[in-house]
Amino acid sequence: MWKKSEQEVTPPAPAPVKNVTPTSKAGSKKACIGAGLTLKGELSGNEDVIIEGRVEGKVTLKGHSVIIEKSGRVDADIFASTIQVAGEVHGDLHGTAQVVLLETGHLEGNIHAKGVTIESGAQFKGTVDMETVAVAPQPTSRPHSANEQKTNGSAHAPNAH
Amino acid sequence: MRLGLPWRRSSPSPPTPPFASQAPATKKLISSNALEHVATRLEDVSPCTVLDLGPPISENLAFYARYGAKITVADFYRFYRPLRGTSLERASTRASLLEELVPHNASTRFDLVMAWDLLNYLSLDEIAWLMDGMSDLCSTGALMFAIVTGSGDMPETPSSYSILDAQTLLSETRASRVRPSPNHSEHALARVTPRLRVDRRFQLRNATAEFLFNFR
Questions:
Q1: Does some domain include residue A45?
Q2: Looking at A34-48, A139-153, B44-58, which range is the least confident one?
Q3: How far apart are CA B176 and CA B199, in angstroms?
Q4: Structural domain for A107, as ranges
Q5: Could you tell me which residues are beta bridge partners of residue B165?
Q6: Which chain A residues are within 8 Å of B19, Cβ to Cβ?
Q7: In a domain, A130, yes or no
Q8: Does the beta-carbon distance from B65 to A134 stay under 8 Å?
Q9: How many structural domains is chain A composed of?
Q10: What pLDDT is recorded for position A29?
């Protein structure tokens, strides 16, 4: 009747979460919104971005990485290839490759991504859409996303200060 | 910035993580008899709309996603704890509080609720209002999984539970202190949750039990 249903164990340590490496080529510039900056508006472009400050509006960096550092605060929807959150985000994350929520990350919003990794201790409230992950691997070609317009990296920051 | 659904309002302030102590984790493997019923629900209702009231855990998201489920994570205790006893809690209607704590829209109807050990950390009054509100967000017959601790001590804060497979959970406790369990009896839970009924109960060790509830 009484099963030995619990046992203390030392399970193998989980594989450490790989921090996202910006996908830009080595030596190329990576944009950084510094800790002392606030950007209000739409941030779009053709390179990876590291956010240490504050961004409000919309972030569109398809094919690239967005890294929100611990000091970063984003009130915006983010569209990118890979999105890594160590700071605070209020908005939806659309990652065509993956979304990573680190231990210090705080996200209130929805996640749409092929892969989602959440470190122990991360804070999250919202929905998760990982539908493509749930489908059994099949050798079918995925439809191409709409052709992405490459734009010159230009951050509209009328209120940057 | 896009105007969000009501639940997208920002929390009043970033919640202070109750798990900030980050003491070394105590981990336990638990053989679960209830999980297979959870898996059956995920298979039978497709796509199953899942509400996980616990903290976000990659393994659990992957488990639900394997069944093509629509997943909502609430991390309820972490976001609710700072609101307890504050003027916000007294001034707001219970429905407004639920709007804030449980992401959903007007058409949301959850088929599966993973409450984990949350009920141990709520008073019967809190359980009553939460479950009453949840009943409006759940489909008839929706399943709720909960781990209820009997007499004795329990960790000061809720544990994290990772679904390793349909028969095994890994519990992780970082709380360095313990406190007395509220020892909610099945009778007391039934009394405060008239819109739920106990479907199954599986006894674990240490006076702990897995419950499967159905929303009427």
A1: yes
A2: A139-153
A3: 34
A4: 31-121
A5: B168
A6: 121
A7: no
A8: yes
A9: 1
A10: 63
Superfamily of domain B33-149+184-215 in the CATH hierarchy: Vaccinia Virus protein VP39 (3.40.50.150)
First-to-last alpha carbon distance for chain B, in angstroms, is 39
Q: What is the pLDDT of residue B99?
A: 87
Whole-angstrom CA distances from A121 to A118, B56, B90, B195 are 8, 9, 29, 33
Q: Where are the domains of chain B?
A: 33-149+184-215
Closest CA to B147 of B121, B129, B123, B124: B121
pLDDT score of A10: 58
Q: What percent of chain A has pLDDT over 70?
A: 63
Query: Any idea which of A47-56, A145-154, B14-23, B52-61 has the lowest mean pLDDT?
Result: A145-154
Residue A57 has a pLDDT of 97
Whole-number pLDDT of residue A157: 37
Predicted local distance difference test score (pLDDT) of residue A149:
34
Task: List C-alpha distances in Å: A159 to A28, A35, A54, A57, B18.
Answer: 27, 15, 11, 12, 36
Using DSSP's 3-state secondary structure scheme, residue A95 falls into strand
**Closest approach of chain A CAs to the CA of B196, in angstroms?**
25
Question: Are the beta carbons of B94 and B122 closer than 8 angstroms?
Answer: no
Q: Which residue of A85, A128, A131 to mutate against B (max B Cβ within 10 Å)?
A: A128
Dig out the tokens for B57 from the structure.
Answer: 């855990």
Kindly determine whether residue B160 and residue A126, on different chains, have CB atoms separated by under 8 Å.
no
Work out the mean pLDDT of chain A and round it to a whole number. 76
Q: Is B128 helix (H, G, I), strand (E, B) or coil?
A: helix
Measured between beta carbons, the chain A residues lying within 8 angstroms of B14 are 88, 106
Mean pLDDT (whole number) for A40-45: 95
Q: What's the ipTM?
A: 0.81
Q: Does residue A65 sit within a domain?
A: yes
Q: Are strands B110-116 and B26-31 parallel, antiparallel or unpaired?
A: unpaired
Query: Which among A77, A88, A123 is the nearest to B17, CB-wise?
Result: A123
A134–B30 CB contact, under 8 Å: no
Q: How far is A76 from chain B (nearest CA, A)?
A: 6
